[in-house]
Write a structure and sequence with these properties.
homotrimer; 207 residues; mainly alpha; 76% helix; globular
Chain lengths: 207, 207, 207
């Protein structure tokens, strides 16, 4: 993969930063919490999905928790959100874009890691999506909100698409940095279309 | 045990289906969620208890997650609930019965598996109950409800009874398909009596 | 360490009792729950933090769950709270003191155990705090409250201080019962000052 791993690491850290920033901002808007709360929820949003995946695949202690770079980047994102707070609102579009980038990258790297640890293809797809949406889900539960992933716009679906591409490519021995990037870009595109046009997944009909 | 394991597998899958159906229906009634939410919450209700048990006893990756049959049956239950929605309300009794069956079977198989992995008898009883009620508890937390098991009718108690019978029988080397069925039937009976007569566990007196 | 381990065990069990009592009382005040709910939430408050820590460091099954002494002490605390209920309100100060003691002890023993299992120093500090505040956080999430640790008074900060002292002392080979007691006493002092004077951690400014 040549410089692939380095590229993926940089992208993964960028996604971590975006998730922490976005997670901390969500927390500040929704609840009366202090600096510890903002830091905790920012870091949980950024690292929670990967931790849940690593618990399930028995890759403990969790990689993003053991690797200080992830902790530093996630803490930095949360503290910047704490310091700047609502002044970041004018950058809402930039933050949504970063969040979509994080979603895309985590879905790909999450599915890929699950395969490495010997999980089946369907399980790897699910764990790719869990890596992408798990942190935000834990944050929402702690903030007493029905998790975003259960109710709004296209969020889990693009993650599932990216994870599926990753798994299929791996099964035909075509996985590598190029496929990873393509899968992430497709996820990113679907997510941004969902945000732009307010597309939602189907809902139960006869409520 | 002869055909015991096959019988238990069939019963376990029936319980999984019932939990997924019931979990998804509860989710549809309680919250504004989309198809991803219904599927997620149905599957979590069905598989969540076993996953928590397997994390605690270090049997990772969790069996019900690795075994595609459980994933397929749980997804099918959730999707049927999504498709039929409130039309299933007229079958409320059937669903309550299926749910009680799931509770009973999971309590027995959960306690049995904990013993296999070397946990002590008290721990195995607790993990039997966790297997039975854990999935519904995670669902309720995600839906912002105080978990059913903490507040209503006889739900945890029959599960604890079935798990205790299982553990005691194992300790005197009498465990097998017949005891498993007897334990499950007793749990089922207590649960249905609790539902029928609205029996609740004691509450704190001096509120 | 001579009698150090015995002293730490006694203190750890005292903290477990205090957490269970306090957790069960909180549950009784906040929600309409039955005896199973009180018992469950008391035990989760007491053992939840250590269980989360042991999952992350891969020390499974979790020590406080496997060791019957912790289960017995936690159950006793929860059942006493159930039996006495609001009559314990007049002992609120005593319970707050016991809770602060539990916080202090769990932060120290949690950080120490994380180091033993090979986690890095920053990770050990975080896990010390998670051990101390994790159980109460899970309880609050199950009761639909924004977790105390995210919003009020000095709770996580003294735990982080005690865990940091523990980790630094270990790194310079000075850790032992005396340092453990000193770290716990400092945590206890900061926590009680926070309670006494209603000190809170800083909040986001521009809400």
């Amino acid at each position: 993969m040549g410089n692939g791993p380095l590229l993926l690491l940089v992208l993964d850290l960028a996604g971590t930063f975006a998730f922490a920033l976005n997670g901390a901002l969500t927390a500040i808007r929704v609840a009366q919490i202090d600096i510890i709360g903002v830091l905790t929820l920012g870091v949980i949003t950024a690292l929670g999905g990967g931790i849940v995946r690593d618990v399930v695949i028995d890759a403990l202690p969790p990689a993003t928790f053991s690797d200080w770079r992830y902790l530093v980047v996630a803490s930095a994102g949360a503290l910047i959100a704490f310091a700047l707070g609502q002044r970041l609102d004018r950058h809402a579009t930039a933050i949504t874009i970063l969040d979509a980038a994080g979603l895309s990258l985590f879905a790909v790297t999450g599915a890929s890691k699950a395969l490495e640890f010997g999980l089946g293809p369907v399980q790897a797809v699910i764990l790719g999506a869990v890596t992408a949406v798990g942190g935000g889900t834990v944050r929402d539960v702690m903030l007493q909100r029905v998790p975003v992933v259960l109710r709004s716009e296209l969020y889990a679906i693009p993650a599932l698409v990216a994870a599926t591409i990753t798994v299929v490519a791996s099964k035909v021995d075509a996985y590598g940095a190029p496929v990873a990037v393509i899968a992430a870009v497709i996820c990113f595109g679907i997510r941004m279309l969902g945000v732009r046009f307010g597309i939602n997944a189907p809902r139960p009909v006869d409520r």
